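Supplementary Methods S3. Input chains for the assembly prediction are listed below.
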Amino acid sequence: GEDVEQSLFLSVREGDSSVINCTYTDSSSTYLYWYKQEPGAGLQLLTYIFSNMDMKQDQRLTVLLNKKDKHLSLRIADTQTGDSAIYFCAESDSNYQLIWGAGTKLIIKP
Amino acid sequence: KAGVTQTPRYLIKTRGQQVTLSCSPISGHRSVSWYQQTPGQGLQFLFEYFSETQRNKGNFPGRFSGRQFSNSRSEMNVSTLELGDSALYLCASSLAGQAEQYFGPGTRLTVT
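Predicted structure tokens for the full assembly:
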């Protein structure tokens, strides 16, 4: 079945860029998403990209999609302590049913 | 505009009992999806409702059920609770035909 994979941890220094990677298997994915979850909170939609796009930028966030390799990345520029969270990659088909990765915990070092 | 609300936020139940969780979507959103989040299995899709009809269902046993009312509010029910049902249950709403799903804070269910 469909699968979404991400590394479990990423550690970066405050002020550096963070790059969180994700791979997926479903070639019929229509949308790919990045969500953020802070401790004890629900999921916050950060951004999403349609599968026929290869890049989307929104302020400090840049999403890159390599459809051939089924690889999605999220770059956070100038990482701040408030960016500490778990970041989930997800994909959906035309029914918008989300298939999730396990989440990447972003750790910020001072 | 108010976000997605879920009640109750926390719940403790005993094995064998049943539980009902409620979700009120963002005003104007007619699609409501439910997800289960556990440390072991991560986030898993339960079901999705649109205009009072279940459109999609994930791979969960029949003990998990849901419904949607005419005002788009949704409830999910879990019968004959098991310890493994302990999880954060998240509800998301979206506009019809739109990709963005907005999540509520979740209901933390603990089964003892």
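The longest strand of chain A covers residues 43-50. Chain A is about 0% helix and 55% strand.
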